[in-house]
Design a protein that fits this description.
Blueprint: E1 15-17, E2 26-29, E3 42-44, H1 52-67, H2 71-98, H3 101-114, H4 120-132, H5 148-158, H6 163-176, H7 181-188, H8 193-203, H9 207-223, H10 226-233, H11 236-246, H12 250-263, H13 267-274, H14 279-286, H15 292-309, H16 311-319, H17 322-332, H18 336-358
Antiparallel strand pairs: 1-2, 2-3
Length: about 375
Amino acid sequence: MVLPWRSRGGRRAERRNLSTSGDTSVVKIKVPAQLRSSKIELVQSPRAPLTPRDAVEICRRLENATAREENAECLEIVSKIKNLVRDNGETNKKCLLQYGVVSELTSCFQRFASTREEHAPLLEEVLSVITSWLPLNRTEGFSKMGSTASLKTLVRFLNAPDAKTRQNAVFCIREVIAIDKRFVYALTDIEGACEGLIKIIKDSVSTSSTKASIMAIYRIISCDNKTVSKLVNLGLVALIAEMIVNNAEKSVCERCLVVLNVVCDNEQSREDVLGNALIVPLLVKKILRVSDLATQCSVSILWKLWRKNNDHLLVEALQVGAFEKLLVVLQVGCEEKTKERASELLRNLNRCRNEMENTNCVDSSMHLKNVKKSF
């Protein structure tokens, strides 16, 4: 058999072994043009899985480089860890996690975050690796990300110009403050933390980062009531109303309603919620439209606002069909607490409706008993 490249002067195919990186050997073969469509010019052998010995050695090297504050060496090791996990997925990840790589990565982040020098590329790379492995809140060593130095760096990244860095920062903050209340208080004491979380939502960096920011805010206001007013003053209520209107995703709507429910526990913040003209119509609309959780939160928020605002809220709720919606809630069934609040709202809505009809306070064209609402 005469091969195509031997028929033109007997030239032999050149075969060269390129440099080997890690456990991968890449072989490049010079192929004639008529065979290049088969895409066999680059042959890559699979990487061997990481061994426990390799994982221990990587952790040891990173520990030593961190102790010496060798920026370049740490960056090289962290990049290698990132590539190992990317190339061999869960196998290498489990091996590294088992032998304590998270503790070494968080120690590296904490150490270089504490120095006065600028180590942004290294810190961003470490944060990128840690974020890709979340959740890690039960992993040994992850709590080091809650140190003051680490949190200050995370807040700085939260307000950085790069969208990916901001996203990684908010993911990490969400996980860190879920570990301990101490980290919540430490975070809110840092200038720019609350502003950064609000800005993540305003800028719509990504849907996942918006969800992470909302959950971080929920954790903060659940633990630290003093921060509620600060977040409300930054425009939290208006942002929540806007997200409920514009975002059709169920999980985003649920998170927004959960946050708004906690905001309404703060007496001062309830005034801001009542001051938003969209809130009551949105709450009534979301009853029985999204999920059981959304219904529970909507009823709870209406009940809390009514307790503060008395009959003014009831008039508005009647006009957007709250009476009919709450009747259906009781008919289809709900948890006991929601049932009690819905029943109390219904009794007072009915009383308010009767009073309005008896005193002719409503426009003659509005017959609330017979009106049919689209929702």
